[in-house]
Design a protein that fits this description.
RBD_domain_sf; RNA-binding; Alpha-Beta Plaits; alpha+beta; two-stranded antiparallel sheet; 21% helix; single chain; 2 helices; 4-stranded antiparallel sheet
Amino acid sequence: MNIYVGNLSREVTEEDLQHAFEAFGQVKSATVIKDLFSGESKGFGFVEMPAKAEAQSAINGLSGKELKGKVLVINEARPRPEGRRGGRRQGGGRRF
């Protein structure tokens, strides 16, 4: 199951996320989403856990808990709407 983790402190690393979720089961991957140009955290990430029961347990156990000074917002990740890419409008927005 893919899990959305929001309201992350800028100091949270992928290792921090992995460690927090490993208390509930096997973690396949943990990713903090970063700004392409600055490299700073955008304040959210994703954790993938193969076992749905363990993932649900992690969601229930960590949602509303504090990590590095901020209260986590956690839920099952939803797929992006069709045709959407993050951050930029398609077409570039420039007119010639």
